[in-house]
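User: Here's a structure from my thesis project, written as structure tokens. My advisor, Dr. K., wants to see whether a designed sequence matches the one we expressed. Can you design one independently, without my sequence as a hint?
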């Protein structure tokens, strides 16, 4: 008679011991999530969005934009590590919080939709980020040239194809993204 396989509770230390094989490894409460290395399209969108958010946030003392690989953790920090594609970290007294960042440090998390596992971005990560206090979550879809946006756990979300605006507290002007122009610039 076959015995069920023992479920491994992964830790950050176990992830750090894995060889660098180009895949992305993330942990949620000890459960391992593996995604393939990002495509060129993915990286072009990440780079273009990071550059725009960096330019918007840099003159302020409100936050700083980051792109992954860069760790964000929550709760039991030994069993939780994610890497949003692009995110903005809140500054405290003009300084970045200690690294690795905590979910409570983030003002915004953004994922570029994974063609191999969109449910991970639209369900797992959306619920994770919003339930843990990240005020806003976006998913960029480089095929449809759209952004999905949620502003809190109970927000049903919205699909944006023309314009996206975001204004975190303390910023004098909103971040404005012309979505068609953004994708043309990123992918053209």
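Assistant: Designed independently from the structure alone:
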């Amino acid at each position: 008679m076959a015995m069920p396989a023992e479920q491994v509770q992964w830790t950050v230390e176990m992830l750090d011991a894995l060889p660098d094989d180009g895949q992305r490894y993330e942990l949620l409460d000890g459960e391992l999530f593996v995604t393939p290395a990002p495509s060129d399209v993915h990286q072009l969108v990440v780079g273009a969005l990071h550059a725009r958010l960096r330019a918007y946030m840099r003159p302020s003392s409100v936050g700083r934009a980051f792109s992954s690989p860069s760790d964000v953790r929550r709760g039991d920090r030994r069993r939780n590590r994610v890497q949003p594609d692009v995110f903005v970290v809140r500054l405290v007294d003009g300084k970045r919080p200690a690294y690795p960042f905590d979910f409570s440090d983030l003002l915004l998390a953004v994922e570029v939709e994974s063609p191999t596992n969109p449910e991970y971005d639209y369900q797992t990560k959306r619920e994770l980020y919003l339930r843990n206090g990240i005020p806003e979550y976006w998913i960029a879809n480089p095929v449809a040239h759209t952004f999905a946006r949620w502003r809190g756990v109970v927000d049903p979300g919205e699909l944006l194809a023309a314009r996206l605006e975001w204004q975190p507290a303390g910023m004098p002007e909103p971040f404005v993204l012309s979505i068609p122009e953004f994708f043309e610039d990123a992918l053209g």
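When you compare it with your expressed construct, this may help: The mean pLDDT is 90.
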